[in-house]
Amino acid sequence: MKKVTLLLFIFQCSFTFAQFNPTAPWMDNVQKSDSKEATIDEIKSAFDAYWQDKNHKAKGSGYKPFMRWETHWRNKVDENGYLMTPAQMWEAWNQKRERSLSRNEILNDISNWEPLGPFNHINTGSWSSGQGRVNVVVVDPNNPNTIYIGAPAGGIWKSTDAGLNWTPLSDYLPQIGVSGIAIDHTNSDIIYIATGDKDASDTYSIGVLKSTDGGFTWNTTGLTFNNTSTVAADIFMHPDDPLTLWVATSAGLFKTSNGGTTWTNNLNGNVKDLKLKPGNPNIVYAVTNNRFYRSTNGGNSFTMITSGMPTNSGRLIIDVTPANPEYVYVLSARTNWSHQGLYKSTNSGINFTVTENTVDIFEANQAWFDLALAVSDTNPEEVYTGVLNIWKSSDGGNNFTKINNWSNPFQATYTHADIHFLRFYDGVLYCGSDGGVYVSSNNAASFTDLTATAQIGQFYRISVSKQSSSKIAGGLQDNGGYALSNNQWKNFYGADGMETAIDPNNSNKYYGFIQNGGGLYFTNNAGASLSGSIGAPEGEDGNWITPLVFNSVGELYAGYSSLYKLVGNNWQNVSINTSFDGNIERIVIDPSNDDILYIADGQDLYKSTNRGETFDFLFSFSSNITSIEVNVHNNNMIYITCSGINGVVSRSVNGGLSFANFAQGLPPIGRNVIKHQSNHPLNPVYLGTSLGVYYRDDSMNSWIPYDTNLPNVTVTDLEINVLDGKIIASTYGRGVWQSPIPSQLAENEIALLSIENPAASVINCNTNSLSFLVKNTGSTTITDFTVNYSINGIDAGYNWNGTLASLATTTVEIPNITLIRGNSIIQATIVMENDTFSNNNALNIEVSNNDGGQVGVVNTFETEESTLLSNHEGSENSWQRGIPTGTLLNQAASGANVYATNLDGNYLDFTKAYLYSQCYDLTPITNPIMRFKLAFDIEENWDVLYVEYSTDFGQNWAVLGTADDPNWYNSNRTPETANDCEICPGAQWTGTNTNLLEYSYPLNAFTNESNLIFRFVFHSDYTVTNEGAVIDDFVIDGTLSTPDFENTSVAVYPNPTKGIFTVSYGNNSPNQIDIYDVTGKNILSVRNTDLTDNQTELNLSNASNGIYFVKISNEKGQTVKRIIKN
């Protein structure tokens, strides 16, 4: 109760929300109304005017920080467009608290939220990998293993093991940002935090808070703000007097001499930074946007210093060093926020001299958003700066060297883009960036990422697999697309990750947009790698969050100025016959009828009944639509949420012809997303808001909080997986969370969970059966059902009989099916009498089927039958079979045909193309070896060709061999060892050799593998292309082996044979007999279920005359016998 009481006191005393950073260039042109704070539309108008003649897509332009801010705050304004006032926020919080206390009287609340992360991640495809923004890092002066970080929307976090593990300290507070931290050097339990997001106003500021118990609880101090634009920045404590502190704020520099009880404003203006002179805290330095100030009386008064300083700046930042207390460095940005200069004082800030450096160490015009400066605490001439990247000077700022590159996450010095914080503690340099917190103990020769376990991700949207709640895709602010599978988060693309979607029929296919729908990135293996990308439709620029959604059969739609559908790798304009007023903001497809789509265009709701070809206007609301949901079991019931703290929550029961209020019980808070839970008789509905999650069902007439253990945080998206009984929430600042949902089993209910075999995510080898995973999701035992299926449009059925208990699963096997070589479409529907819900009964997948290769047979690629499987990630497939006619690559090794990346010209930019071998069984082969002819003309180092292998049907791949192997690759460069090899695996062919030469690799390590697949991988980067590669005469060679296997007791007779013969094996008890021809092709296999005790009769009557090899195997070994058929 102490926490709650304190929190209420905070709100009653003072509360502030953040207007956008007042130093942003467009803020000078904001036209405010009647002396009030500017409305969000007034700020947006000024922003649009500023960017009208500028390139907002340029890296470091400063466009994205505002778009993030507007997206976050747009739904937290009143009906006039003003950000929430302290009184409004207090009332909303109070109403939520009261409803939380009384909810058990209304509902048996089962909410129990638990964090899903990301706590850590692996980079599988991002060019700018990171996890979440960090504003400030402070090391406990009494214990170097205790570190605190402040996040712009994730609050304050504490580590007691030097950054290996982090614990949140402010979850019970309404979502706050932290930009400054000070720790009492006489008592580590006393901590002060300067709240708010000083750089981008992602969150509000409530002034300075104080904890006396190590961050377990927080108290207000005497410094609180009474308007909607003041934010606090850095805070420092007097080195000898822990009751004296200074804090920089956008309303001035404040000082306390009594531990925060009272504060005085001793320097008016937007104070961006302050520092104390090392060894003499009476000298205090401070800067506003364009002025440097110096105090000699402990910050009680200040004198402006102009000597040597620029006359007009856009932003200034300071640092000092105990290595020479007389040194003061000031880094300055011009009024257009580009690099102006580094200014240096050697007499304690009395006058300055600009350093000689002329290199653009900013590399951007976004210094109003992020700007950092640090001076070594052991060498006063060693200076570090940060905007996009970190730069280092070893001569006092006269010359700088670039330390890292934001787009090369493989560098040892990588720290992500957008550097907000740099500071030394005891010789160790800490960096806070848009990607997390990084540390260097070797003067920036390398950095270590310490962000792991800090769940500070700012998610825009998430998508959850229909089959499993453990598979999630999501988009993060400046940290790209994240994929969760196998309990591991993968960062599979970069930029700002936005709307995501998971294929409803293949839970390994994840898709995700970047900002403005500028690129669609996808992974075919649940994030294990980036599989490719597709550009926006020509001439289209979508909303900041461009909508993306699948229908039930796996068709993917996106909303720009029109509705588009993805066909292959191209966008097709579906709604060409309908014009909208602006970009489409929301798309929802009726879960029971793919023909019906709803879209939101601002305040207007439209409906299509023909898959988007035409739309009819339905309804106009009072503010922009933020969410649309269709009841799964009654598609006449539609739910709508609209923007603003008083935005409507409405429900229609007549297909959208009219709507009624559905917001009863909600406080005035942002209503972001609404979701309906299917397969429950009470029709539960969930609402994601700026104060957590709310719940309502048919037994209730108002909403109640559904938030046990959920931090007080903005919920940006909700997804429900009914099969697992889970609801998943994305938040803006605290990552992804999950809670159970109420369940009530129907009496008769069945679900088709997945098509298990053939698998959609692998290369199937000679598949001849189907299998389906089925679950009894009802309360009574199931004894029969039917699986109706089709393969490439040919229908069939299978009747199952047995006993399937409630909540049990069974695998339905259908043998003796035939799949073509290549891709096939399999569709399946499960049918049961009196089935309650039909929304979980159908699936369809596309599978790839390969055939077996013959050892010793050379593939010259001369016939259609010699065609290999191929696919790609990126623009389009590069591998082509035919006659090469390039300028350099125009010959075949034998015959006329080859496989080439392009038969008559250069290969494509930004593609990763795969050419697959057949499946090989090497278990009967001695000394197997791969051989092929290759000629290549590949952009040296930047583009590459290499060979991979898989032993698990293509689920996992590894590079075959190294550059040290004879007669193999010609390069071992990696992204870590070279700056011109960002896509190199470390073993590859690159450069030019136009002679068709034979390359070979021994495969002795794979003689125990019965399903071995190889693939040629051709990978090109974003620019510059050559002719590529030509491959011919591919062969896996070797001889059949005959190991000893209690040979005296094994016999085959009669030998020779006309066809029927007997295998006698005495006491060997084999579990398998295989027959191979002289090429190594398996022509007959008999498993243990068909083997008799001591001998088995086999039939070669249909085989050609010749020599065959009979392999008899068990767990102890194997033997091979030769037999002649004549």
Automatic annotation (TrEMBL):
The lineage's top-level taxon is: Bacteria
Which is an annotated Pfam family here? Por_Secre_tail
Q: How far does the signal peptide extend, from start to end residue? A: 1-18
The entry's keywords = Signal
Q: Which GO terms describe its biological process?
A: xyloglucan metabolic process
Q: Ranges for the Secretion system C-terminal sorting domain?
A: 1052-1124
PANTHER family xref list: EXO-ALPHA-SIALIDASE, XYLOGLUCANASE (EUROFUNG)
NCBIfam families per the UniProt record, alphabetical: Por_Secre_tail
Protein name per its UniProtKB record:
T9SS type A sorting domain-containing protein
- Origin organism is Flavobacterium piscinae
